[in-house]
């Protein structure tokens, strides 16, 4: 790829952050990936050879905009899931949730500066009586709106309201292919209720995504779940790797898959990904991006999940809802706004950068030292710091934080050891 072509393809503000030797890296046979948090074009050819790519470590003075903002619309939820991110779930909306006025002010402020996908999550967003009003408010201001729900409160009438509010996609959590597995995590009767909610939304023509949190107790059901999701006509299947936070801390020892098992299932996922039957995404499993590069070197070609940054050649009807470009995007392309308005890199990393009630979202996004640090892979430590895949993976910063008390430390659930890396000295250092 020539410099001229690069210049046309990417915004001017990025060009100065591109790699030092463009002719070496961007010949026509190289595939490139733009990591929109910052500054990067990578040569997959170099990655495939396990070389450290020549990437400018400069931070952008004007960070790339957020692509996904997860807003915890309420701390209230009708369920008590064993792996919930929250410890303090309430039955009803909380009086510390952002009011309708405060929520609208936040949405208007975000929409004035950015055009991310706004994910309405919780708790359970549908316990919030004004949730559809807020969804259409965001839609009318040019935001794409997604709703993350447990599905159990979606009646036929609610599904119609969701469609009319302009929600672009609804994700429903399913943690197994049968009631026995799903209800173990989410309570009796909730598998059937979630599927009923799915069917109501399907009849309304709403794009549907299934989220599955993979644990020791349901991993073997993944192939069946994949077939079920295809048969039911969902648009996407997203896998979540357990992050030991909230209730997840208590079940981590019993429920967390061993790292080798995650590796096995992420490899299985890669094989499904390249079949291109449905939109697939491994969420909060950043080392999937390492596996993709390792496997694509063997098999050739990258799965659709790794061409999302290219609008042309879209393989899924909801391409823009499917875009990711890097393993962990906490504070880089995504962030989380809590039910009280605190802003975090993601919903699992408890490092508040401020509150939108006191500081405009754009100021927090542009100036937070926490975000700035997360945006620089050269600040990673341990084996992630020594790893040539750190620019496309980065490891889970939340798992690093919980394992080592340091969000820049190495991801504890990745089995990869960079060539020449001394594991014992890494452990000593931690
Ligand atoms: S730190 Fe990154 S990978 Fe980990 S839970 Fe947050 S967004 Fe996901
Ligand atoms: S060592 Fe860290 S950066 Fe490298 S692949 Fe594993 S999690 Fe990713």
Describe the structure.
- This protein is α/β, with parallel strands linked by helices and 430 residues long.
- The chain contains 18 helices and 12 strands.
- The chain has a 10-stranded mixed beta sheet.
- α12 (259-273) packs across α13.
- The protein starts with a helix and ends with a helix.
- The model is unreliable at 1-60 and 308-324 (pLDDT under 50).
- Bound molecules: iron/sulfur cluster (2 copies).
- One iron/sulfur cluster binds next to α17.
- Residues 243, 284, 286, 328, 330, 346, 348-349, 396-398 line the site of one iron/sulfur cluster.
List keywords for this structure.
two-stranded antiparallel ribbon; 430 residues; globular; binds iron/sulfur cluster; alpha/beta
Question: Concise description?
Answer:
With 430 residues, the chain is of the alpha/beta class. The protein has helices spanning 3-9, 12-15, 22-25, 44-48, 100-113, 131-140, 156-164, 179-186, 190-203, 222-232, 247-255, 259-273, 288-299, 361-367, 369-374, 382-385, 397-404, 423-429; strands at 32-35, 40-43, 68-72, 117-121, 144-149, 169-173, 207-214, 236-241, 279-283, 334-337, 342-344, 354-355. Strand 10 and strand 11 (342-344) form a beta hairpin.
Question: What percentage of the residues does DSSP assign to strands (E)?
Answer: 5-15%
The overall pLDDT average reads 79
The helical percent reads: 25-40%
Q: Kindly, what is the distance between the CA atoms of the first and last residues, rounded to a whole number of angstroms?
A: 42 Å
Structural class by sheet pairing and helices = alpha/beta
Main beta sheet: strand number and arrangement? 10 strands, mixed
Radius of gyration: 21 Å
Broad shape: globular
Task: List the ions, cofactors and other small molecules found in this model.
Answer: iron/sulfur cluster
The number of strands is 12
Tally of helical segments: 18
Q: How would you spell out the order of helices and strands? A: HHHEEHEHEHEHEHHEHEHHEHEEEHHHHH
- Which segments are poorly predicted (pLDDT under 50) over 5 or more consecutive residues? 1-60, 308-324
Strand order of the largest sheet: 9-8-7-6-5-4-3-10-11-12
């Amino acid at each position: 790829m020539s410099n001229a072509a690069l210049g046309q393809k990417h915004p001017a503000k990025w060009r100065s952050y591109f790699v030092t030797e463009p002719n070496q890296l961007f010949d026509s046979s190289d595939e490139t990936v733009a990591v929109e948090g910052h500054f990067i074009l990578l040569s997959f050819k170099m990655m495939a050879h396990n070389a450290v790519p020549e990437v400018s470590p400069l931070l952008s003075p004007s960070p790339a905009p957020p692509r996904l903002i997860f807003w915890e619309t309420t701390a209230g939820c009708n369920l008590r899931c064993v792996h919930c991110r929250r410890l303090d779930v309430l039955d009803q909306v909380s009086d510390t949730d952002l009011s309708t006025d405060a929520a609208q002010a936040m949405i208007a402020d975000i929409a004035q500066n950015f055009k991310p996908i706004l994910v309405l999550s919780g708790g359970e967003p549908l316990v919030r009586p004004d949730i559809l009003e807020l969804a259409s408010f965001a839609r009318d201001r040019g935001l794409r709106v997604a709703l993350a729900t447990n599905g159990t409160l979606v009646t036929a009438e609610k599904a119609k309201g969701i469609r009319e509010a302009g929600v672009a996609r609804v994700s429903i959590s399913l943690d197994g292919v049968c009631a026995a597995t799903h209800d173990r995590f989410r309570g009796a009767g909730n598998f059937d209720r979630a599927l009923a909610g799915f069917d109501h939304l399907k009849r309304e023509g709403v794009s549907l995504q299934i989220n599955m949190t993979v644990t020791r107790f349901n991993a073997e059901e993944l192939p069946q779940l994949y077939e079920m999701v295809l048969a039911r006509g969902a648009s996407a299947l997203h896998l979540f790797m357990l992050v030991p936070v909230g209730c997840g801390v208590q079940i981590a020892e019993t429920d967390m898959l061993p790292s080798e098992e995650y590796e096995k299932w992420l490899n299985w996922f890669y094989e499904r990904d390249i079949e291109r039957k449905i939109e697939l995404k491994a969420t909060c499993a950043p080392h999937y991006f390492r596996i993709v590069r390792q496997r694509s070197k063997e098999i050739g070609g990258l799965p659709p999940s790794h061409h999302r940054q290219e609008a042309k050649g879209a393989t899924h009807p909801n391409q823009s809802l499917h875009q990711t470009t890097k393993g962990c995007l906490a504070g880089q392309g995504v962030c989380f706004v809590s039910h009280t308005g605190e802003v975090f890199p993601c919903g699992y990393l408890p490092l508040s950068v401020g509150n939108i009630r006191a500081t405009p979202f754009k100021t927090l996004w542009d100036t937070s030292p926490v975000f700035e640090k997360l945006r620089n892979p050269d600040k990673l430590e341990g084996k992630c710091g020594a790893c040539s895949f750190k620019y496309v993976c980065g490891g889970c910063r939340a798992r690093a934080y919980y394992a080592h008390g340091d969000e820049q430390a190495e991801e504890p659930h990745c089995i990869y050891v960079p060539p020449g890396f001394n594991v014992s000295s890494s452990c000593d250092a931690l």
